């Protein structure tokens, strides 16, 4: 069993333990990624680190949202590394609207991650390096592994974006993407929001699709309110096209992901397609697949009843010599 703060403890502990940890133990910085985009990162190494973990976060997320997760992993002896993917968080934007969820290709995300590994992670790594991925970060993480399979010991995918909801038939999805690109071209813009998407909205807890934890949800929204430059809106047509291309590659090349993998599916997920996760899990050569019944999409900021078993299992999995000791 690992020591985690309960939701009842979190408000006070965030102020007197997690924030001081962030201020004193975490190093932040940035490098210039492809096409001159600044990429922001953070990392920390406990005194007696035994393992290392690279976090690949989800869409709209910033490393500032991961303070509790990093604190928990740090206390378990992990050296922890995270970056803000280009186009979100504290990293640079590529369009004139900083709320656009935009990328030309997921290859750019992958290249940034590999640069981060070469410059920051590898020189400060302790023990074996595993990947901890959430949602969009899982697609990026899978592509990173395909590019450099020997760099990683294990991979954990939480609510992985191997498919997006609503799961439209391929011809319909392609047709909508074509219409979106045609609209953007006619408007004379590089890119614009996909149909129905808009700038950042602070959705009330009562109608959110991400978590059952009021405390963790409020902490997340407070961070974004206090630092508006990390706010991100909906996806652009180009991001969605790039995502579909990336997910197709992952499904096709899943059998090549040979390292031990642990997949967590959120049973009540309304963001990503759990059927795609099931397909990928069946094709991974060395995979343990766990469904967290009733959980919403954001397993790492979920209510204790969902988050605690996820954190316990992923820590045990990454620390074990083989996948066979995973709960």
Automatic annotation (TrEMBL):
Sorted UniProt keywords: Hydrolase
Keyword NAD listed: no
Top-level taxon: Bacteria
A GO term for molecular function: hydrolase activity
Pfam families: Hydrolase_4 (PF12146)
Domain Serine aminopeptidase S33: 49-304
InterPro entries: AB_hydrolase_fold (IPR029058), Hydrolase_4 (IPR022742), MAG_DAG_Lipase (IPR051044)
Stated name of the protein: Alpha/beta fold hydrolase
Organismal lineage: Bacteria, Pseudomonadati, Pseudomonadota, Gammaproteobacteria, Alteromonadales
